[in-house]
Design a protein that fits this description.
Chain A starts with a helix and ends in a 16-residue tail after the last helix. Chain A has 12 helices and 2 strands, in the order H-H-H-H-H-H-H-H-H-E-H-E-H-H. The radius of gyration of chain A is 24 Å and the shape is globular. Chain A is mostly helical and 330 residues long. About 6% of the residues of chain A have low confidence. The longest helix of chain A has 25 residues. Chain B has 499 residues and is an alpha+beta fold. Helices cover 74% and strands 8% of the residues of chain B. Chain B contains 12 helices and 7 strands. Chain B has a 5-stranded mixed sheet with strand order 2-3-1-6-7. Chain B has a two-stranded antiparallel ribbon with strand order 4-5. In chain B, a hairpin with a 2-residue loop joins strand 2 and strand 3. In chain B, helix 2 runs antiparallel to helix 8 and helix 5 runs parallel beside helix 7. Chain B is rod-shaped and about 220 Å long. The two termini of chain B are 98 Å apart. The model of chain B has no long low-confidence stretch (mean pLDDT 87). Classes of the chains: A mainly alpha (330), B alpha+beta (499).
């Protein structure tokens, strides 16, 4: 009897111990995943970000005072605009599908063809681009310095006040603060219940079919270039009809090998940022996944597997940070 | 003079400014080495090298598949870029072509490497994807080739061919030899040729397999080529090159600073010499001034002395003149004028105090004979002796004068009785009697003495001339009455006074 009791007791203890161990593993962050979670806390200067937010919504950046950064990067639409081409000054439509502004601080370069090495460069290019703002720093600074409240607030945030460098910096500080942690980040951090079993399965498919080869890292992409049409040509050479924008990185380097090479886009918030690809050639996520399978992976997959992958992609939609929401900054 | 002086001041000012500017320039040159610059550049270079090494390690990790994402290949880039920008800004502040060239070399190699790493990521992702899929693709194709019903049949030749292809491709991935690559390519071509004999679904699967096989074959070669080029990109040695160039530059600046310090030292010596010269000039000026002053002082002193001497001489002369004016040169007795002055004063005093004063008029008897017989010189000697002898009997308050020739007058103050006067007169007579020899020659002398007197309070009309005249009269009387005697004038002061 005594022996039996002690066995029961020790079994109970063992059980309890293993249960505890299970709990602790449940909250343990997943290691060695090719996708890395977004940082929990982004540190930034709140004054500068508040200025950046005002600038982000300021139409004075455009020559005709009608277009702001937010015109093409709508926070309600995943930081993009849901359109195939975005209307700039005088409704001129740009050649590219607007990418999301969210999490761009983690991209290794900016723009579809990586033309901008930094967010600052991207701002300069948007200002000078006749199909976006069609303006110049001189014109913009002229308008902003006429605004006493801007001048005053810049004086508070920067020792040298309202300058080109500081206006650009305030915008960049704000953009870098636009980080959208998602359910999937919570899962990576160890919350096993943050995503459903199907979504987990979708993630496994995402990895095993090889999507992960390019869409990896902290931004699920955004850290490399890739040919659009690895296995068979998607653009040109029997693929789709080609225009200038389709030449990709070739526009920057003029190297033959860089034709149809694009920055691998981040898949964060991808479910909200349709249509897809630089030319908005895929209207839905399903279509985009199909194109990827055919031209990039060169594989066949069942409809069910693709659906699972789409479900996984939905877990990458994150929360817009509170300070970026409409209304005065706190 | 003013026109000449103005440019001189300007010249001095200009010289001073030039001296100041030269010393400032030399001082600035010695300070040219910026320690902060070195303190900032050297750690930045070290950090950059560490980043580069970490980058290399991560490229290798990605190559062998230890890294499952490319973030480690991109995130250090931003850090490296920021570091390089800082370096460029700092290096641009210095000078030196070698430094510029080294900086350019480093920038070029980093840009090249960045580009190569981009290519590597692109190739590596495709290769990894195909490598991961290829065994599955082979399995799937073989499953499709398996006849339905599960009967074990002889494996189809295609199945055997793809099995061999799988093995060869995996081996090629590990050891990418060109000859092996050619064989594999031939095998793939062979499979492609057979493709047409199969149904559509199989054809599609075979097509995928062929695509991935060719991708692996191509990507492996391309990736290795990229890896070789990355390995050949001299970022590390470029950083070392920049480091060396910086060191050379710092050494050069250091040497230059040293050289300018020597210049500054020499210059300071020169300035000291200049200062010494100025001090010497100043000292000499002071010495000259002192000498001139001394000479001037000496001249002044002699001048003063001479003035004093001259003044003293003049004073002596004037005293002598005064003496001469008041005295008789032969006997040293006062002369007539002085006698009259003293007599006037004595009269006034006598009137104030009601004294009696008396005048004794003495005229020598027989002096003419002495003069004639013994000569004038002896006569003068006699006169002098007579004066001295009689003077012995005259009080200090009283006076004795020689009026000229052999006439003497004695003024006696405060003689209340005639006894005092008589005593003086008799003493004079006695002296003359006793004076019997001069120069060994016997002489005989006597005198006739007239005495006048006046009582100050009694006779207010008495005058010196009157007193002298009275005494003269009395002396004549004495001469007429036999000489060698004295006679009082009438009336005399004591007669009117009752005893």
């Amino acid at each position: 009897m005594a022996i039996a009791r002690s066995v029961i007791l020790s079994t109970a203890l063992l059980w309890a111990g293993s249960a505890l161990a299970a709990v602790s593993t449940a909250t343990q962050a997943l290691r060695d995943e090719p996708i890395r979670p977004l940082p929990k806390n982004i540190e930034f200067d709140a004054n500068k970000a508040a200025l950046g937010k005002r600038l982000f919504f300021d139409v004075r950046f455009s020559r005709d005072n009608k277009v702001s950064c937010a015109s093409c990067h709508d926070f309600a639409k995943g930081g993009a605009d849901g359109r195939s081409g975005s209307p700039g000054v005088e409704g001129r439509i740009g050649p590219f599908n607007s990418p999301s502004v969210f999490n761009t601080g983690f991209n290794f370069r900016q723009l579809w063809n990586g033309k901008a090495g930094s967010l600052e460069d991207q701002i300069d290019m948007a200002i000078a681009n006749p199909k976006v703002f069609d303006s110049s720093w001189d014109a913009i600074l002229g308008k902003l310095t006429a605004d006493a409240s801007f001048v005053r607030d810049f004086q508070r945030a920067y020792p040298d006040g309202l300058t080109r460098r500081n206006v650009s910096n305030a915008l960049v500080v704000f953009e870098r603060s636009l980080v959208t942690p998602s359910r999937f980040d919570a899962y990576l951090r160890g919350d096993a219940n943050a995503i459903t079993a199907e979504e987990k399965l979708g993630y496994e498919k995402f990895k095993s079919y090889g999507c992960i080869a390019c869409h990896q890292g902290i931004n699920v992409g955004g850290n490399m270039f890739q040919v659009f049409g690895v296995v068979q040509p998607y653009l040109g050479n029997g693929g789709r009809k080609v225009d200038d924008a389709d030449l990709g990185r070739y526009l920057v380097t003029k190297r033959e090998s860089d034709k149809y090479v694009f920055k691998v886009p981040s898949l964060r918030n991808v479910a909200k940022t349709g249509p897809y690809f630089h030319n908005a050639s895929a209207q839905t996520l399903e279509e985009a996944v199909d194109v990827m399978f055919k031209y990039q992976l060169g594989r066949n997959a069942s409809k069910a597997d693709k659906e699972l992958i789409v479900r996984f992609l939905n877990t990458l939609s994150g929360e817009v940070p509170p300070h970026a929401l409409p209304g005065p900054a706190k | 003079m003013r026109l000449l002086r103005l440019p001189r001041i300007a010249l001095i000012l200009a010289a001073f400014t030039i001296l100041l500017a030269v010393s400032a320039y030399l001082y600035f040159q010695t300070r040219a080495i910026n320690v902060d610059l070195q303190n900032e550049i050297v750690p930045a270079l070290r950090e950059l090298k560490a980043l580069d090494a970490e980058w290399d390690a991560n490229i290798l990790k990605s190559r062998v598949g230890i890294n499952n994402n490319y973030d480690p290949l991109t995130t250090p880039l931003q850090q490296a870029r920021a570091l390089r920008e800082r370096l460029i800004r700092r290096v641009k502040m210095t000078e030196g072509d070698a430094l510029e060239a080294a900086l350019y070399g480093m920038e070029k190699s980093f840009a090249d490497k960045e580009e190569l790493v981009e290519q590597f990521k692109l190739q590596n992702a495709v290769l990894r994807n195909s490598l991961r899929y290829f065994p599955t693709a082979v399995e799937e194709l073989k499953a499709l080739l398996q006849p339905r019903g599960g009967k074990v049949a002889a494996p189809s030749p295609l199945s055997a061919a793809v099995d061999r292809l799988l093995t060869d491709i995996l081996r090629f991935n590990l050891i990418p030899e060109a000859a092996q690559g050619e064989r594999i390519a031939a095998a793939i071509d062979d499979i492609e040729r057979r493709q047409a004999g199969y149904p559509d679904t199989l054809q599609e699967s075979i097509g995928l397999l062929i695509r991935h096989a060719r991708l692996i074959l191509r990507q492996r070669t391309v990736e290795d080529a990229v890896m070789l080029r990355i390995g050949a990109t001299p970022t590390a040695s470029a950083i070392d090159g920049l480091s060396n160039a910086l060191e050379q530059e710092f050494l050069r600046v250091l040497r230059e600073g040293q050289r300018y310090r020597t210049y500054l030292f020499t210059y300071s010596g020169f300035l000291l010499l200049l200062l010494g010269y100025a001090a010497w000039r100043l000292m000499r000026s002071y010495q000259l001034i002192a000498q001139v002053n001394k000479r001037l002082q000496a001249v002044n002193e002699t001048l003063e002395q001479r003035v004093e001497e001259r003044t003293a001489a003049l004073e002596r002369q004037s005293a002598r003149l005064a003496e001469l004016a008041r005295h008789d040169t032969l006997t040293g007795l006062i002369n007539r004028r002085e006698l009259m002055a003293q007599l006037t004063q004595a009269l006034q005093r006598a009137k104030r105090r009601d004294w009696t004063i008396a005048l004794l008029f003495i005229d020598l008897d027989g002096f003419k004979e002495i003069n004639d017989t013994l000569g004038h010189a002896t006569g003068d000697q006699v006169l002098t002796e007579v004066a001295a002898r009689i003077k012995r009997h005259v009080r200090r308050d009283d006076a004795m004068a020689r009026l000229g020739g052999d006439e003497f007058v004695i003024l006696l103050n405060e003689v209340n009785t005639s006894d005092g006067v008589i005593r003086v007169a008799e003493a004079a007579l006695r002296e003359l009697r006793e004076f019997s020899e001069v120069n060994g020659r016997s002489i005989r002398l006597s005198a006739s003495i007239g005495i006048s007197s006046v009582r100050g309070g009694a006779d207010s009309h008495a005058s010196p001339e009157m007193l002298l005249s009275l005494a003269d009269h009395a002396m004549y009387q004495a001469k007429q009455q036999g000489k060698n005697c004295y006679r009082f004038s009438t009336p005399n002061a004591w007669d009117a006074r009752p005893r």
